[in-house]
Amino acid sequence: MLSTQEAEGQQTVVADAPFSSLSTRMHQMFPELTCAEIDRLRRFGEVGHWEAGELLFETGRTGPGMFVVLNGRVKVYQRDGIGREVVIAEHGAKQFLAEVGQLSGRPALVNGMAVNSVDALLIPPDKLRALIVAEAELGERIMRALILRRVALIEKGAGGPILIGNSRDARLVMLQGFLSRNGHPHSVIDERDEDALRLIEQFAAQEEDMPLVICPDGSVLRHPSMPELATCLGLLPDLDDSHVYDVAIVGAGPAGLATAVYAASEGLSVIVLDSRAPGGQAGASSRIENYLGFPTGISGQALAGRAFVQAQKFGAHVGIPVHVKALHCAESPYRLELKCGGKITSRTIVIASGAVYRRPAIEGLDRFDGRGVYYWASPVEAKLCKRQEIVIVGGGNSAGQAIVYLATHAAKVHVLIRRSSFEATMSRYLIDRIRSLPNVFVHPNSEIGRLEADEIGLASVSLKKPLPDGTESFDTRHLFLFTGADPNTDWLRTCGVALDDKGFVLTGTGVDGASVCDLATTVEGVYAIGDARAGSTKRVAAAVGEGAAVVAQIHQLLAVSAGEAVALGA
């Protein structure tokens, strides 16, 4: 279910929050425009006509934009990949039809059919973005409605794929996590369910085909990868190899998204690339309570969702999931080589690729990925460990946020830390919160020795040495590891960007007399921000600040380059 705050912020699912938060906001989700407001919108679109029974938009096909109904009525309904149909709403004159995906022309998640003769103003995605910026007050109302509608579709799983499999299957957990973090509707059917058994038989699916995914257009994917699923859903953008961007940002965490928002809002052409989802490591935080302006806290996914929509609003292109293989900077403009075989060309590059979760040296750890061992705590994992005994390893803020969140789901939470306390590694508010939780048990000076398995997956966690009370192991099927992260910078080896001995990007060394605030690397036109940068603060607020600061430095570089080009032309 969805919290009110995240409904406002973006497409994110939060377990056990009341659905009433949306049902009480129908006036915001489906506002009625005045004649004067519709007149203001006319300059952004063109009027079209549809006869009864004609589709204005169709599930799985590229959405044409936002429709403002002038006359007639339009039925909005869901039809999933196995032919089930559910009516969602019916709209008449002075109402508009769209959801947040239409800011970037994503495939429609539902069908819209003319009930009778319909005249409507069609505003395409690029003009819709221009409308929201130019018409501030009206644009705010439209934007809120678009976001709330996406949240409602996520609630219903409308327009999304159907995932069939075992809830403990690592591949199913991975696909669920991908869809959830990207705010895409979906539904899951356990493979033992009667409906699932019928579909498995219908598609002659074997054990090696699981999980089975039925896309909205009816096509079937057998144990798909994330890129294969993204392609089926139309999430991967059309990347233009010939276009030269002003700014290409690698990484859609808080730093990368902040750069995208500031750069795009100032008129620069921007593309953001990420291999998984908006938010980076911060996106996996269940609740951030010390970020300025959110006194009641906000989930990392909701915060990233707001920034993601904001970047699209200003026209930034976003490519997710797109894996950057290498940076080539022998000549300008620079070229990003993509794992899928394409390329991105840009005058400047911003390294915001963050860090990857560190895997502790535990024998056989890899075989438990998704089968009892996890590196983040999202609603998908929280549902898996509901009313069970779990173990969490780590003493930093990421671990603290996970402890607080998972304690509301699990029966018991055992926390293993190598130090004697949290004092040197965790924020005070989290330490105090953890101390107040009756089902959380912190075990200082403790480490994992080995992991035991059974036919299902993880069965128990053994310690290197017994606890003071003699405990040597915990019977658990769920182990969460928050043991730090390493910089995600291997893709820079082809460019020659200077790294420190741990792999973090060195900045402020590219120009004589550079200040400590200089975010430039040793390669001109290439900048580093956020967790991938050597000496960064490793805080969301600091990452956002660096994202804003780097845009000013990019402007200076582009201005100098433009001046030199003019001089050469003269």
TrEMBL record:
Residues 29-149 form the Cyclic nucleotide-binding domain. It holds the Pfam family Pyr_redox_2. Gene3D superfamilies: FAD/NAD(P)-binding domain, Jelly Rolls. The keyword Nucleotidyltransferase does not apply. GO terms for molecular function: oxidoreductase activity. It comes from the Bacteria. Keywords: Flavoprotein, Oxidoreductase. This is FAD-dependent oxidoreductase. It comes from Paraburkholderia elongata.
